[in-house]
Design a protein that fits this description.
four-stranded parallel β-sheet; two-stranded antiparallel ribbon; 4 helices; about 20% strand; alpha/beta; about 130 residues; globular
Length: about 130
């Protein structure tokens, strides 16, 4: 059984359409666009017959830049930087996968994600081996 980490963006929406997993999870971690992501994800799940789960975490304080609605941190390599965001999302999705007895976690990414340390192929491969 599969669980899709679904943001409502084009990468995860395409995976939802293609794979039609039984479950999808959308994580509201305090990002500015959280409501739009939840709404889009919910809509796709309704269209494709996927059970939608939402997890809300209050991580707004350490957020930085565009996604946090504030100036980027001085260490930020770009304006859309939330330190270790992908690592956090994968960890929360994996915890949820265990609670749902899911044995496969699906993640969609775009090539620009590789700009971040936790968006690189090496990181995703390491998490894949760990899980």
């Amino acid at each position: 059984m599969e669980l899709l980490l679904l943001s409502g963006g084009i990468d995860s929406a395409c995976l939802a359409f293609w794979r039609r997993p039984k479950h999808a999870i959308t994580i509201d971690y305090g990002q500015v666009c959280a409501k739009a992501e939840r709404d889009a994800s919910s809509h796709f799940c309704q269209l494709f017959g996927i059970k939608h789960h939402t997890v809300r975490l209050d991580t707004g304080m350490p957020g930085s830049g565009d996604l946090a609605g504030q100036p980027p941190h001085e260490l930020a390599p770009e304006s859309e930087w939330w330190p270790f965001r992908n690592q956090l999302l994968l960890t929360v999705a994996a915890i949820t996968a265990v609670s749902l007895s899911v044995d496969k976690l699906l993640l969609g990414t775009v090539s620009s994600d590789s700009f971040h340390a936790d968006g690189r192929v090496e990181f995703v491969s390491a998490v894949d081996r760990l899980l």
